[in-house]
Amino acid sequence: NHGINYTQIQSCSSSLEGKRLHIKNGEKTQRLSPKLTFVPWVLINGNFTETDQNIALYGDLKTLICDKFQGTTPPTACNS
Asked: Which residues have C-beta within 8 Å of that of residue 19, sequence separation ≥ 6?
């Protein structure tokens, strides 16, 4: 429905690299502060705040991401 190539995802997830990335992200999840209590647990620029979490889940995720973007070239979606 969304134009996602599931074959590529399956291939990655069952590869050694996919397994390594899964472990690496699990380790990062275990080190979160505050500790993850449910999913999705939204981090913006590597930080968790309850305010950002609520906006991401119940408000305007796109505006939140665009407002907090710290790079040099914002995502194209931020221009509309």
From this structure: 13
pLDDT at 55 exceeding the cut of 90: yes
Residue 23 is classified by DSSP as H
- Integer Cα distance of 54 and 50 in angstroms: 6
At residue 80, the pLDDT reads 82
Local structure of residue 36 (DSSP, 8 states): P
Beta partners for residue 47, in sequence order: 44
| Residue in the structure block whose two tokens are 């505006």 | 63
What residues contact residue 28 under an 8 Å CB cut-off, 6+ apart?
A: none
The mean pLDDT value of the chain amounts to 93
Buried b (16+ CB within 10 A) or exposed e, 44-80: beeebeeebbebbeeeeeeebbeeeeeeeeeeeeeee
